[in-house]
Amino acid sequence: MAGTPALQASGLSKSFGGVLAIVDVSFTVREGSLTAAIGPNGAGKTTLFNLVTNLYRADRGTVSCFGVSLAGRTPDAIAALGLVRTFQTARAFPGMTVLENVLVGAHLRVRARPWQQALWLRPVRHEEQAIRRKAEALLEVVGLAGRRDDPAMSLPLGAQKLLEVIRALMASPRLLLLDEPATGLNDVETGDLGRLLLAVRDAGVTLMVVEHNMSLVMGIADEVIVLDLGRVIATGPPAAVQAHPRVIEAYLGRGTETVWEMI
Hints:
The chain has 263 residues and is α/β, with parallel strands linked by helices. The chain has one domain: P-loop containing nucleotide triphosphate hydrolases (Rossmann fold, 3-Layer(aba) Sandwich). The chain is built from 11 helices and 10 strands. It has a 6-stranded mixed β-sheet with strand order 6-7-8-3-9-10, sandwiched between helices. It has a 4-stranded antiparallel β-sheet with strand order 2-1-4-5, with helices on one face. A hairpin with a 2-residue loop joins strand 1 and strand 2. Helix 3 runs parallel beside helix 6. The longest helix has 20 residues. The radius of gyration is 19 Å and the shape is globular. It comes from Candidatus Segetimicrobium genomatis. GO terms for molecular function: ATP binding; ATP hydrolysis activity. This is ABC transporter ATP-binding protein.
């Protein structure tokens, strides 16, 4: 349906042992946009992702993806709808190479049946070759092509984060949720990540990013959602959010320029 949001949350709330983690959170992510969720430590950003993907069950509220309710759906069923996510902590598969880790991301999109794979039919071979070419191209984009045969666990943290991003892209998502993808990256790697995310958005994939790197967020986001103590305190374009009084108060309570220079 034209105009249907890629992701829509309404009235989400979640508490843990009486502590309110997410309180009446509502937001909309436009299809084809790059939306960032920011906030101080403990604001509830990762909890929000966990509610959207049903890793946590919300106490109240609803979530829909391209107009389809996610209520009661398992994480793999959500991924099959086209919503794919990464995690705050890099999760490389041990005992597998860098390339093998990337190839795993394509498993949801493999069309060949098990019996066809067992017989190694021509369509199976062609499909595998196409998947491998895509994986190798993505490794080239993030500068990991030279380490394709290395054990994935031997990569430094920053490289493992990039590996997780391109593994998620192998699933051909319609909507990609990235939880702090710039953690552990140096300035050059962060710049490369920003360009990659913009290219992914321009290719038609909708993105929602939780991130602490404000330079990255303000440089690539179309829309910013600001959380503080589990509540949405501001939404809007990056420039408007930076100047919002409640956002300034949440981040150290200082003047705008000082706040964004220090984060």
